Amino acid sequence: MTTVARSRIEDEQIALYSDPDTCPTDALKPAPLEEEAAFVAWQQDIPRGYLRLLPEELDRRIGIARAKLGERLTILGHHYQRDEVIQYADYTGDSFKLARHAADQKGIEYVVFCGVHFMAESADILTPEDVRVVLPNMAAGCSMADMAAPDDVYEAWDSLHEVLGDDSGVIPITYMNSAASLKAFVGEHGGLVCTSSNADKAYEWAFARGKKILFFPDQHLGRNTGWDMGIPLDRMVLWNWRVPNGGLTAEQLERAQVILWQGHCSTHQRFTVDQIEKARREYPDVQVIVHPECRWETVQAADFNGSTEKILKTINAAPAGSTWAVGTEINLVNRIAQENPDKKVFCLDPVVCPCSTMYRIHPAYVCWVLEGLAEGHVVNEIRVDAETRKWALVALERMLNL
Ligand code: SF4
Hints:
single chain; alpha/beta; Rossmann fold; five-stranded mixed β-sheet; binds iron/sulfur cluster
């Protein structure tokens, strides 16, 4: 790997992005990749020539590469991608919608996934084996997915069975935001995958087959889903993967209906009850809608909660003149606001940052991988091995059949 020497401007950018009290949300405008030094540092093997390309030049070159690839290519874009990337997507959606779309693909050779690593893995699992899936920047991961390391989950599973016995009736559910190996694990152990669009149905599926759920990696989605189904908070215990037996007693585990992994989304955990109260003081007619990856008390204080697709549909269908405070990723909130000029739509957190890992996809990376594909050269391919694929597909298909 080549080491890129940093300039003074790049040092200033890194300092800006590293400061926990400020966020350059206002600076979310198209710029050459070299001006996003903190992100360039993650995938240094992109040829240097791409770093300085201006937005217009990137747009021109992406257009040429796409025209060469024609119908052999589809580009998928997650809602949290920035506008200058989402404009190239043939299809946009949340992880559930994109997973379905990937599964429906026929006759294509390449999927370029503008999202994060676990989504590209799912696309590889759900598409025919000869379809090649590409992630424009391999450093676009998900900090929540990283909180469930496969070895920690396997150890937790063994510990649970030591405490509860082999007929414990624990059904594992993994949120879509997890490694392919964990999707395979739940597939092999009688469980399934879920997204924020169908977590309630996944719980119903699991309780029809077992007595308890082990839910990972997002404690908040797991808790909010359980609460909506009438499970009291004290029957949903938190498994701290850093300590033996998750820090729980045998009695707590026996009593629990849901065992929640101690993971969270750094972007959604920032939304608070105080922010909701402030929005209600400033706009008495405001309606608050948040993502279920937010904390339980935040979701309780909101008027509505739901997946990014539900947030989008709810605000799009709302009457003109209505006011919405939204608790989800800033790129999506800004896009909803632009698409609904007859409504007031704003983000609950005034200094909210974009999802930093989603933001690692820059048009320069898209240009780089597309030009490679147009020349028959596949860079940044995401490939899930056959055994993992087999069991992960079982878990994903259980979800798609809900
Ligand atoms: S918004 Fe949160 S859960 Fe989604 S990709 Fe970013 S870190 Fe992961």
